Amino acid sequence: MKKVLVVFVALVFAVSLSNSSFAQDKKMAEKKVAQTKIAVDKKPVNKVCAVSNEELDKNAVTVTYKDKTYALCCKKCIEKFNKNPEKYIKNIGPDGKWKKSAE
Q1: What is the DSSP letter of 97?
Q2: Most buried in the list 40, 41, 59, 80, measured by CB within 10 Å?
Q3: In sequence order, which residues have a C-beta less than 8 Å from that of residue 54 and are 6 or more positions away?
Q4: What local confidence, expressed as pLDDT, does residue 82 receive?
Q5: Average pLDDT value for the chain
Q6: Where in the chain does DSSP place strands (E)?
Q7: Residue from 41, 23, 80, 3 nearest 89 by CA
Q8: Is the pTM of this model over 0.85?
Q9: Per-residue pLDDT at 76 exceeds 60
Q10: DSSP-derived secondary structure for 48-73
């Protein structure tokens, strides 16, 4: 009977540890994504895709980074942008188009 009780307690302990670890992993992932969010109603600061320099169309998506909204031509560009937003932001000039030196 003691063996069954010990096994049960060990099992409950293991399950609670795995749930705790999962919750921490989820919080870390949410924190990372919080840096760049998909924007809904803000007007983007750029007129071409911040990643590819392609013209934006009705399929354009936007992300918010440091309280500014940037337009991207597709969902694939979101992944690239999220990995290193500063790399792509520096390509955007004050007129919303790519800087000449970025091309």
Answers
A1: S
A2: 80
A3: 48, 73
A4: 92
A5: 76
A6: 36-38, 61-65, 68-72
A7: 80
A8: no
A9: yes
A10: B-TTT-PBP-TT-EEEEETTEEEEES
Q: Which residues pair with 98 in a beta bridge?
A: 92
Question: pLDDT tens digit string along 22-67?
Answer: 556 566 656 555 555 554 557 888 999 989 999 888 878 999 898 8
Lowest mean pLDDT among 1-5, 64-68, 78-82, 93-97: 1-5
Question: How far are the Cα atoms of 7, 30, 45, 51, 95 from residue 79, in angstroms, in the given order?
Answer: 45, 15, 19, 10, 25
Supply 13's token pair: 């302990």
Place of tokens 């994504």: 33
Cα 91 to the chain's mean position, in Å? 19
Pair of tokens at residue 95? 């007129």
Token match 């909204």: residue?
69
Q: Which of 82, 47, 84, 86 is nearest to 63 (CA)?
A: 82
Tokens 């936007």 -> residue:
62
| Residue 62 near residue 39 (C-beta atoms within 8 A) | yes
